[in-house]
Amino acid sequence: MIGLMQKIWLALVVGLAAASMACAAADPGPREAGPGDTRPHILVMLRLPPEHLRPNTDYAGSYGDGIGTGARRRIAARLARAHGLILVDDWPMPLVGVDCFVLAVPAGRSPGELAAVLSADPAVAWSQPMNVYQAQGSATHNDPLYLAQPAAREWRLAELHKIATGRNVRVAVIDSRIENNHPDLVGQVAVSQNFVLDRFRGPEQHGTAVAGVIAANGVGIAGVAPGAKLMGLRACWQTPGKPSATVCDSLSLAKALSFAVTHGAQVINLSLSGPPDVLLGKLVDAAQERRITVVGAFDRDLPHGGFPASHAGVVAVADESSGATPPGVFAAPGRDVPTTQPGGRWALVNGSSFAAAHVSGLVALMREHGRPGPLTLVSVRPGGGVIDVCATLTRVSGSGGCMNVRKDSAIVSR
Known about the structure:
Elements: H1 2-26, E1 41-47, H2 66-82, E2 86-93, E3 98-104, H3 111-119, E4 126-129, E5 132-135, E6 138-139, H4 150-154, H5 157-163, E7 170-175, E8 189-194, H6 205-215, E9 229-234, E10 236-239, E11 242-249, H7 250-262, E12 267-270, E13 272-273, H8 278-289, E14 293-297, E15 315-319, E16 330-332, E17 337-341, E18 345-350, H9 352-367, E19 376-381, E20 384-387, H10 389-397, E21 410-413
Parallel strand pairs: 7-9, 7-12, 8-9, 12-14, 14-15, 15-16, 16-20
Antiparallel strand pairs: 1-3, 1-4, 2-3, 5-11, 5-13, 6-18, 10-11, 17-18, 19-20, 19-21
């Protein structure tokens, strides 16, 4: 009897192994896609079951739903085969109730048309092209330590910091990689995560510059909120050969947004712009439902300022030197701003990326006083425009220590 049972057990093991090998051959699984992959891609969202039906749910790139994950991956592989696509990556998005699958599109075919066809499949929640986003800033020249910071003059940082420094407020910088050991950033970055599938490990210009504007510790420059704790979430990368060009895509941004929301960010800085995006829009909505302030850079070259600035509830910020802003858009310093750069250096930078970073820092100062939910920004004219930072901060803090409150300021809630 024992010998017979051993033979049956051995046969079962061999059978299971063969079945597993056959499944692996039929569905090789996702292949990594990253900055070096120049093919167009589409995203396919497959619905997750309700959370109470998912065992061991958490957020760590997987969520314990092994059987369901495998089933959804097989559906994605089937869709890829049926439409001549290649499955290259996947990522769970439990915040918006979907698994996100990335499919490469062969040359000569339209990502938009394929996404529309796949969206009509009953198994698909929705499908969309993979969008590309551009950081809204650039370096000018490498003058170390420019003494006349625009924010120090116009925003009177020394007076603001008597009221608040953003102490322990968590600000997610979704951008390129920050140089954490820069003299002005040592101890300022509490969390570092990479959501870009490449092998580059060095610090990058744009993310380092944005981080300095928000939270530099005063060795060379003063950040708007030097007491804040940054979450350095790398979702963007420098274009090879063009260090001032920084780009991101829908999936890398979605991963970083999910992480920021589920790991306690109180402010999310998005110094970038691009086309409207269903997945990213749902994640921004999820952030706002949790009383997280999302700040975006306004792009004058895109309709309505581009995404995320155009998204409902996002604090849209333009460079105040670039002219009058549309209604509802705020303005902050964004020209010849001295900030941190890789290699322990400093440089002057321009663009709405850095105007947005100023406002993220200001929101951190306001959050220090413990008021969740919508915050009140005070502008010098009704409907937005240049911010009266002293009036803004004194309204939250109740302090009378900031002396340049303007008589003609208007209150705008965001």
